[in-house]
Each structure stands twice: as C-alpha cells, then as structure tokens.
From TrEMBL, chain A:
Residues 157-179 are annotated as: Disordered. Belongs to the CSN12 family. Gene3D superfamilies: Winged helix-like DNA-binding domain superfamily/Winged helix DNA-binding domain (1.10.10.10). Residues 257-454 form the PCI domain. SMART domains: PAM (SM00753). This is Protein CSN12 homolog. It comes from Cercophora scortea.
TrEMBL record, chain B:
Residues 285-496 form the SAC3/GANP/THP3 conserved domain. Residues 41-67, 166-270 are annotated as: Disordered. It holds the Pfam family SAC3_GANP. InterPro entries: SAC3/GANP/THP3, SAC3/GANP/THP3_conserved. It comes from Cercophora scortea. This is SAC3/GANP/Nin1/mts3/eIF-3 p25 family-domain-containing protein. GO terms for cellular component: nucleus. Residues 210-226, 241-251 have a biased composition (Basic and acidic residues). It comes from the Eukaryota. Residues 56-67 have a biased composition (Pro residues).
Amino acid sequence: MNSMLEDFGEALADRNGYQLAQTLSPSLPDETLRGIFKSCNAHDVRLILQRNIQRSFPGMMDKNTNNEVQAWVEVYHCYWKTIGEILAIQDSSANGKSSQWAQSSWTKVYQNWHEMLNVLIRGYLNSHFEAWTIPCLYVAGKHLRIFAIKADAERNSSSSLDTGGANFEDDFNPESEKNKQLEDCARQLNRVFNLCLSDRSPLEESRKWGIYYVINLLFKTYFKLNSASLSKNILKALSAGRGDMPPLPAFPKSQQVTFKYYEGVLRFLEEDYAQAEHHLTEAWNLCHKDAVRNKELILTYLIPCHLLTTHTLPSLKLLEPYPRLQKLFLPLSNSIKKGDLHAFDLALLEGEDEFVKRRIYLTLERGRDIALRNLLRKVFIAGGFEEPKEEGAKPVRRSRIPIAEFAAAISLGSQETLEDDEVECLLANMIYKNLMKGYIARERGILVLSKSGAFPGTGV
Amino acid sequence: MATSYPATAAHGAVTGLANHGTASLTSPLSPAPAYTPVQVRQSFGQPPYPTTTYPVPHPYGPHHVPPPLPMTNNYAPNGTAAAPVVAQESPKKKIEWPDSVRSYVQRSFLPANLDEAVSRPEMEAKLKETISQANDSGVMYTINWETMPLPQQMIKEERARARALPQALQSVQISPPVAARPKSGSKKRKSSELIDNHLNTPTAPWRAPARLEDRVTFNADKRQPAEEPSPPSKNVSKFQKQMEKRQKRFDGGYTSTYRSPSPPPSNGPVVGTCTTLEKRYLRLTSAPVASLVRPEPILRQTLELLKRKWKKEQNYSYICDQFKSMRQDLTVQRIKNDFTVEVYEIHARIALEKGDLGEYNQCQTQLKALYQLGLKGKPIEFKAYRILYFIHTANRTALNDALADLTTAEKGEKAIKHALNVRSALALGNYHRFFRLYNETPNMGAYLMDMFVARERLAALCNICKAYKPDVPLRFITEELYYESDADAAQFILDYDGRHLLEERDGNIVFLTGKAGQLFEAPKSAAFARVDIKGQI
C-alpha cells in the first residue's frame, strides 16, 4: 500500500499519467495485490488513504486541492475493494470450494470496478482531475471489459439463474441475458467516450487525447457483442467533432493502427472494399514490424479486399511468416490462379467454418468469378489466332467463340454438367462485371469478344 | 439415527411454516396475515403449502446445528452441485448415504437430464426434500432410487398440477401410491409426504419456504404478492382488488410513466390464474398480474381456438394480436418448452403468409434461441427461412451468423440446402440457377422469396441487357426469369418504361437488349437500397 501511494506521489509530482495509471492496475503479481489489500482493513482504509494522499499534495490545502484529494481517496478506496474481491476469488478457488457459494464473485469485482470508474468520471466532470491523468481511464476501461467478460462467463457456466425479473418485454432476450455485464460495460465505455469527446478545454490539456484509446476499446467490445454496427455511431460522432480534434497521426502509433484496423474491418463488413483496403493498408503500413499477430489480423481482411478490388492474390513471400494465413488462403489462391473451379469449390468448402468465423466467407466466395475468368481466358487463348487477312499483318486472336467451347471448359472445370442457358448466364455475369469484354449473340450461339483486351488487366 | 429424526422433522416442518409466516410479514407490500399458513398445523392433513420435512435450523433445536452454508464435501457424490444438497442434511452424526441415493443425485445433475425450465436452486430444494423425507421415514434403503422420478420431473409435474388445479387448495385427498408409509403416530405424518405427496401439492415449487436462499439471503421474502395463489384469505383478495384498481387507473390514461410502487423483484415468474381463452394484447408497463395471465393449460386451449379461427376467418389483425398476448403470457411465466416453440412457429408461419416481416422476425429471433435450448420443433424449416430472410434484408452480418449457426448435418437437409443454394446463386449472380431454385422452394419459403424476386429480376435484366446483343426472344426472358407468361414478362419490362425495347418480328416478340442501355440500372439500385423492415434487429 505504501509503495503504491509513494508511486502515486511520484507520478503526481512528475505529472506522469502512465505511471499514475500503473498504480491503479489490478493485474499485478499476487503478492503485491495481497500486500496492498492486507495493509489496512475496511475500517481504516479511508483514513490511511486520506493521510497518504494528502501528503502528496504539498503546499496549501485550498478547497480545490481538498476536493481532488477526496476524489483520489474515493478512487483508491474502490480500487482496494476490487482487489479484495479478486483475492477472494483466488482464495476460494485455491481452497477448492466450488464457486457456487462464491456468489458470482466476478460480478462483484465488476461492480466494484464499475464504481471506481464512476468516481473517476465524476472527478473529471467536476474538474478535480487534470487531463494528463487520462491513462487512469484507460486502465479502468480496459479492466472493466475484462471483468465484464469474466463475470458473464461465470454466470453462464453456473446455474441458470433466472434474472429477467423486472423485464416487461413481450419476448425474452437471450442475447442480452448472456452478455449482461459486457453490455453494461459498453454503456460505461460510451460514457467515457463522451467524457473525452465533450471536453472543451484547450487541446494541450484536453481529455480529447484519450479518445482513440477509448474508441478502440469500444470497437473491441462491440465486435465481441456481435453488434459491430454500433461502432458506426462512434465514427459518426467522431467525424462530427473532428474539427477540433487533434489529428489521428498525433496519437500514439499503437492507437492509430488499432483504429485503422477496426475502421477497415467495419468498411469490409459493409462491403465497401475500396475504403476497407485504404484503411487496412494504412494500418498495415503503420504496424510495428514485429507485431506478427496484428499483421496477421490485418492481412486476414486485406487479402480478400485485394482479391475483389484489384483481382490480385497474395504472393508466397508475403504469406511466408504466417503459417495460419497460408493454410487459410493458399488452396483458394492456387485454384483461382489455375482457374480450377472444382478445386476452388473444394477449398471454399474445406475452409468454410474458419472463413465464416472470420467473416470473410461471403467475400472470398466471390473469388470464384476470378477463377472463372481465368478459365475462360484459357479457352480464349487456346482458340489461337485467326487466319491473317493479309500477309504480314499482326496476328489477331480468334474472337468469335462458340458458347459450346466455354460450356465444355466450365463443365470440365467444375466437374458438373451445366445447361447451355446457365453457361450463358455465367458469361453474361463476366461481361456485366467487366471481367470480360464482349457480347453474346444468342441466335448464333457465339460469344463475340473484344479484339483489344478481351480480359481487361490480364494482358490479352 | 432414524428414530431421532421424526421429531426433528416435525419441528423442522413447523418452524419452516412459521418461518414462512414471518417472512411474508416482513414483505412491505403484503398485507396478508403472517399466520394464515399456521392453520395447517391444526389438522395434520394435507398442507396447502408444500411442506418440507427435512430439518430446518432453528434456535432451539438441540439435535443439529447445520451451518447456513455447509461446505462439507463428505457426502457429495460428484463434488460440486450435489454437495450442498446432501451436506445440508447431515446432522452432527454423520449419515452414510447409500450408493443408490448418491447415484440418484448424480443422475439428477447429468447434463442430459437437466431441464431449462427448472432452475438449479429449485432442483436442489426438491432433492433435499425428497431425500430427507425418505431418510426421515426410514425408507431410504428400501426405496428403489433407480425408478424415482428426477427432481426436475417432479417439479414440472407439480407445476402442471398447480396450473391444473388453481383453486383447489382446500383438501385434496389423494392417496399416495408408494407403499412405504408408516402409519403410526401423528408425528409420522411428515414422513408420509413422500414424493407422490408433493407431486400432489398444488403449489408452485418456488413458493416452497424451504429454499436455502430464502433463509440465507438478507431480504427475507422477495416474492411478490401478486403471486400468492388466490387463497381463502380475505386480505389477499383485498390486495388483488387494490391491484385491479391500480390497473384500472392505468387504463384510465394516467401518464404512462406512472408506475405502481414497484414491487421488489420477484423470486420466480408469475403463475397465471386467468381462465379466459382470448385476451387482447397490451404492452406491459408494470409487473404482470397473475389474474390477467393465462397458465399453460389455458394457453394450449387458446392455441387450438386460434388455429380454428384462423382457418375459418383469416382475420390477421385479430390473430396477430392474440398471438402477441399469448407470447407475452408465455414470457412472463417463463415458459420455455415445446409448446412455446409451437406458438412461435405458428405465429411465424402466419406472419410469413401475410408478409408481416416485422412480426415474423421477432418470432424467428425467439425460435433461434428456443432451438438452442434443445426444444423440439421444426428447426430445419425455420433455419432455412432465416437464411432466406437475411438474403431479403441483405443483412450480411446476420447472414454470416446464420451460416455459422449451421451444423454439417443441417447443411445437408433439403430446406437448408435449398436456402444455401439460393444464397450462393445470388452471390455469384447466377440468375439462371436462382430462378430454378425459386420454382422448387420447400415449405413456405416462397413467401420470403417472393419478396426479393422482383429485385433479382431487375438485376438479371441489367445483366442480360449488357451481355446480349443485339436482342433476345422475349420467350427467353420469360423462361430465364421465371415469369408466368410472356405477357407477364412484357408487363414487367413495360413497368420500367421499356416499351421501345419490345418489337414484334415474324410473330414473335423480341427484346432489344442492345438498346436498353442503363434503363434498368437505376430501378435495380433503388430496389436493393430499400430494405427497411420494422422489427429488424
């Protein structure tokens, strides 16, 4: 306890927000936590805190300072109580007692921590705390989310406690019962977001500097709650207030990368692949070279983006450091390259569960168009050249191709027999999507391809 | 051991009742006299409250001082859940529980036997009751534990009975079939209350005063008065009158924010006592009132009535209203069983038929959760609808979730396979295949597909117009896009100002695709942009 408060005094003197936040971290070694908790009891904790914290404020005790001291005492008191709850859980699990009797301890931890966040928010709203202390909000928010997830997991695994007592809905809501705590957490984080957003102080001492950390935390929570679409509200609020916001590049790089990543994924989910590619590429470029896991995450969405926007596939060299991505994308990408429809279908089926889980299935599926394009292109090339009309003229590829030839290729490639009308439908799609230039002359049963660049972007 | 027990047991039961009495006295909202239940003691007949005969800790009980939260694991056959149940039984002298009892407890908590409708505390209370009664009456070693119904079954049966005999609280004389009934002194009365006995107790199990939490937790009685079974007591009916009065004040248009002095959160769901079959839907603004809620047996009759009415009258606004009130009654009573599934399924189908997608979606969301509980119904049929629905609403996120929700086996089922094929055909722009699938939609999926077929036709027309030059026979359009007739196809084109694209040639109509240009593009984008559905999540 003493060393914690010494650190507090030091951080306060240096105006070092991160050091200050460190004193509020609940993820310390066990002995440290225990030491802090054991150094006082429920009766004297306030007194001890009061005395020590006051000492960190040299000089006159005016009304403002006194308020700040009181606010910190409240914060650390909540912190102390939370630690007590965490230790209680460890004790009960160490003693082998079933958590049945521990009465949802993580929920209690969550509640105490939530209380601490409340005190912090109140402190900021009443301007007891200065903006340099915002890392405290980071710690509070980060762990609130962690505790919420733990509390939900604990409640769901223990008995089916029916909690929907004061619920007047016509239908029950299974999702919200499952994620009760995390949903509350999202609401709290939203408060913190608004706390940062609405600060009107000059930029140098504005809480606005905390905004991207909180946004990233919120995005993470929304994704976990399966309601990523809520993130759009945040982006909207952000762009509305962008005028008097410090520019993104002024924030720590880690926050930039995360933010860009989420922004990209959100666009990706809305099928705005051009924007998605833009944001993800930025994230990719900013990402630390050793952050393999993060790079892997970015590539998971950037590769499908590229497939759709530029019809390009990842090179082996790019995938080399990521065995997981190789497994994910190589079979597909090989089959697309070869124009092997059957192999493509198999690869898609093979990876379906994983693709669906990562929400890239519906995007990758469209890679079949590219595979088909490559197959049709082979047919076109196999058709060879027309008889030259005059000596020495540049050879011209045969551009009037019977539909039947494509039908044969598609049937071979996909290993299923298609009706001619369906083949025509696929060709029409190629043309419509600008993957192929030409037109179908149905009456004559041929496809007339453009003499210049029948397959745009592929060199023929 | 067994000899020392009956006395304690009787004591325990009595204190148990008294406990309950005082408990309800402390309830701020219950003007019911605390001692009504004590009357029971005068005749040792069938108690109106489920009596528990295992020892309840009481201040003057010399026999045992069970700690409120016993942590002894000695008797726990499977460590965790069963431990408190059995341990609670242990008096100072340790009892060797026979293996048969242990395996019975174990069997009760097997995941396969767990029932969503019965909460764990309820089960534990019931187990405790059962076992201690057997022990008290000395039949613990003779009872065939293997054929003993599981606590969850007992509870469910109890509930069913509670609903079946709402008013029959007085003296239900039912002779228990189990033979092990020592008929000695009156003290032994408790021991006679074996399982079959409380099976007949017409009181809901969560009203049992025996639950551990009731004694441990600080708020002695959280039950809300609204749940009191309409007893002979005058005071309670007075209370109900007050409630009704309050209700009327509500209907009378007091501001909607007004709330009756909100009762403390109820300990269990309300159990309805209403016996009218039909009920108009009203959104709840306060805790439900038992007298206005229909219990499951009534709701079952309601469903039959509604099915008949729907067949005969086809009055959707009436049916929808009635189904909504049924769903509400089910929800407030937290009835989640096969019947619940049936109600939602039927409402979903009717809503589909009438194109009420908002209502349909609500049902679908519930059904998804209900199927996840492992309840019976038609999950295949409805999962297929779900996919089609998300295709219609172009909700990619939800579609992805719906895909993630399917097992490999389900993907092979006809209806789901069909829906998946529809989805992939559309994703790849394969209108040819899409319209073939449209023609062979199983169940009621066509109602959903009807919703987006027009827009897919527009998309296909855009495609065809760009790809085919200079023209195609109208017949081709009719067949590819699955119109009923050439006239229908022509009409569709005319509807989008395509008169100039139709030309008669040698007695056939041709569609001048080459001249269409961007004609269908704008309507297509509009059709895809506008998917806004009430009730969409």
